[in-house]
Design brief:
The chain has helices at residues 2-28, 33-59, 198-201, 214-219, 436-440; strands spanning 66-72, 77-83, 98-114, 131-145, 149-156, 171-179, 186-193, 223-231, 246-252, 268-282, 285-300, 313-314, 320-321, 329-342, 345-358, 371-385, 389-399, 408-418, 424-435, 448-459. By secondary structure, it is of the alpha+beta class. A hairpin with an 8-residue loop joins strand 17 (389-399) and strand 18. Helix 1 (2-28) packs antiparallel against helix 2 (33-59). The longest helix is centred in the N-terminal third of the chain and has 27 residues, at 2-28. The chain is elongated, with a radius of gyration of 35 Å.
Length: 460
């Protein structure tokens, strides 16, 4: 009804406009009546076309999705096509003045069979059973501010391991604010991975082997709460070679992630230098060489877990478990690493060492003996099918240094299938592990262990 009234009013208004248009010039210029009549006829024709078009619109069903509506008039049911109202889309709008706001995350699910996590020293009294494992399930939010700040807040639904109280079913991973106005000197504050260890700093989603090596897990400090100065000194003066040198210098509480109180008045001091010596094409393929070195010093109080991966203390049967300090200690650590890339081939190596000594009061016997832990790994990767199918292998060794001949070694081989890069990836690893301590002391049982791990990874 509304459309019909609109057509009638529009037609009347248009007709009045035509009469006004014609009447005015007829009174003013009588010598060109034939020309005016032609213009009148043209205007009337256009008006008829407009009225015809409006009538067709009035007779046609309204635009939009149609649905069938059934009504009951007391006697019969009547079906009638009516327009389905479209609901407005759901959207999220940031409250602050961010220039960029990105929501993302990833999920990693493992299948683990055989001697589960034996390569981490979990055998004998710390052995685990076959399992499906929600390895990581993270969601994060990153953003940039006009005031030269960027931030990240990330939480993980898949951290609970039943051992470490700082890793519950859901807890924070990276939560930090970074001031980046000057690329040469940026300031970062919050919680993230302390800058120590190449493999530890490599993103979880980019690893060539499903799990990180035992030396990395036993010695690196992992995520900590603190502040850091870092940057690329050549970013402005030599932009093409900005990656020639990158430095990191951080001060942290030193007692792990998601712990609001420091264990004492001492801090953990961590530093790292990285240098990309060259990055170019060799034989038409992307190639590079990166070197790195790290240092760490920390004074810890009794009750602090100094093995963030839960595997450093050597048990009586040669297996490993979390090292919770029975008394205060002082730790110093260092590492060196290298990453060579030649087209489809990658070669990565790292050596790490940590010295731990007790700090017992004068005249009091220490509750544990000082020890030195060291280890290394060498990882190789080669794309059998460019950017799709990759073969990867790793050799690793850890010497905990707490019992005679207590080393643990592993060899890993695997395949990675990149369905859509790292965004959708399938991985499978076979790991053979042997314990030097158990080989020397056969009364404790088996000294050779085998495991198969499969992983599905999705990033969004």
């Amino acid at each position: 009804m509304f459309i019909k009234k609109f057509v009638s009013r529009t037609a009347g208004a248009s007709l009045a406009a035509v009469i006004s248009f014609v009447a005015q010039p007829l009174g003013a210029q009588t010598s060109s009546e034939s020309k005016r009549i032609q213009e009148l006829e043209r205007a009337v024709a256009e008006l008829k076309q407009e009225i015809s078009s409006l009538k067709k619109q009035a007779e046609s069903p309204p635009e939009g999705k149609m649905k069938t509506k059934v009504t009951y008039d007391g006697k019969t049911y009547v079906e009638k096509a009516v327009v389905q109202e479209e609901k407005p889309p759901v959207y999220v709008q940031q409250r602050g003045p961010e220039l960029k706001l990105v929501l993302g995350g990833f999920i990693q699910v493992n299948f683990e069979d055989g001697d589960v996590s034996a390569f981490e020293g979990r055998f004998g009294q710390t052995a685990l059973k076959d399992r499906f494992r929600l390895r990581r399930a993270r969601i994060n939010l990153t953003g940039d501010f006009a005031e030269q700040f960027d931030f990240k807040i990330e939480g993980d639904f898949g951290q609970s391991d039943g051992i470490n109280s700082s890793r519950t079913a859901f807890s924070g991973t990276d939560i930090f604010l970074n001031w980046h106005q000057y690329p040469e000197a940026q300031i970062k504050i919050g919680q993230w991975k302390a800058p120590f260890g190449l493999e530890q700093l490599t993103p979880d989603t980019s690893l060539y082997i499903i799990e990180r090596s035992l030396p990395t897990g036993a010695i690196t400090p992992e995520r900590q709460i603190g502040i850091q100065l870092w940057g690329k000194p050549f970013a402005s003066v030599w932009p093409d070679e900005k990656d020639l040198l990158t430095y990191y210098a951080g001060i942290f509480n030193g007692n792990g992630r998601n712990i609001t109180n420091n264990d004492n008045n001492n801090f953990m001091y961590v530093g790292r230098l990285e240098s990309t010596l060259f990055k170019s094409k060799i034989w038409g393929q992307e190639s590079s060489l990166k070197l790195g070195a790290d240092v760490l010093n920390s004074g810890d109080d009794a009750g602090t877990n100094i093995s963030q991966s839960l595997t450093l203390l050597v048990n009586d049967d040669g297996s490993l478990s979390p090292f919770v300090l029975p008394e205060a200690d002082e730790r110093t650590a260092w590492s060196v690493d290298a990453w060579l890339k030649l087209g489809p081939f990658d070669l990565i190596g790292e050596f790490l060492q940590e010295r731990v000594r007790p700090r017992a009061p004068n005249g009091v016997a220490p509750e544990f003996s000082k020890f030195t832990t060291d280890g290394f790994y060498v990882t190789g990767g080669y794309f059998l099918i460019p950017k799709k199918l990759q073969f990867a292998a790793r050799w690793e060794h850890l010497n905990p240094g707490q019992k005679g001949n207590d080393g643990i070694q592993s060899i890993t081989g695997g395949l990675n299938y990149y369905i859509h890069g790292d965004d959708l990836k399938l991985m499978v690893n076979y790991i053979h592990t042997w314990s030097d301590f158990r080989e020397t002391n056969p009364q404790f049982g088996e000294d050779r262990f085998d495991e198969v791990i499969g992983r599905v990874q999705v990033m969004f």
